[in-house]
Amino acid sequence: MHGGQRAVPQLSFLTILTNGAKIHIPMDKLLRIRSRSTSYSETPSLKESLLNLIVCPACHHNLDLTIKKRMDREIEHGFLKCKQCSAAYPIVRGIPRFVTSDHYTRSFSAEWNLFSTTQLDRGTTTGTRETFAEKTGLSPDKVMGKVLEAGCGMGRFLEVLSHSQGVTVVGFDLSLAVEAAYKNVGSRDNVHILQADVMKPPFNEQSFDLVYSLGVIHHTSNPKEAFMKLVSLVRRGGQIAIWVYQKYRRPPLSDFYRIFTSRMPWSTVLALSILLSHLYWLQKHWSYFLVLFPMSTLADPERRVLDTLDWYSPKYQFKFTRGDIVDWFLEAGLQEIEVLSNPISVKGRVT
User: Fold this and answer.
1) CATH assignment of the domain containing 68
2) ω into 91 cis (within 30 of 0)
3) How many domains does the chain have?
4) Rounded to two decimals, what is the model's pTM?
């Protein structure tokens, strides 16, 4: 995406116009996505209570905290050092960083910092709350205890759960989407945000009452291994819920196009997604349009661009059958396995 950003035309903003609806995307915001600067309304800071939940991802020993800058009861800058192997992990703008790079998730770093509030519930809208219930089989209001989201993105589900009583929610992501997540929900007392790799999670085993991952592990290099890592973090009696892409659900041409789009600069894929959204009206007049040019069919133009971009830009994208995922749950020794109606959503319990 670095080269793609430099190639963006010198315009003040990109505009999507579809059936009278407009989306304006400021070019300066697009070009700053990879910047580490921040303009948060509240100073980002780490809550010390998080230290009771995290360990060194390399050797799983406890961490010592060194504070460089404190804001009241929270830490804005500092580092965590392992007592056993001496590995050190910086705290940057209140977020512990257990990785040195966003690696293969750079498209998500860009995507979620640009569309940082698109999927948040606002006012009377409850789309994210409903999506959580559909894909986990759990009512957000009834979730209790310590909860972990693997691949929190910009924090849409963390935001929903943070309103529940008696819950502590921890979200982590490999990408720089954690910057947007912190801006959205990180200042809330019961929310913790960190940057980490699902293959090396910085938590003790059996630490959480609920672990969920919705639309994430299919974007890793080894989804089954990622799932097994998450299962190990669930305490006895706790639950795990995942949602992954289903095989055979999208038109075959979309996978063919991904051979090329997943290698393109991110900004190029964004431009193509905007173009497709602009041409969305053609599907009403030409029945083969969506077959030849698979794209999101969401009515809201901004969400349609985001959904299309989210499909074509990631490096990894695996798809599964229900049987594949149930086999994972059985192999992990999970009980009370439930295949939900939203494909493919499955939950189970650790006993």
Assistant:
1) 2.20.25
2) no
3) 2
4) 0.86
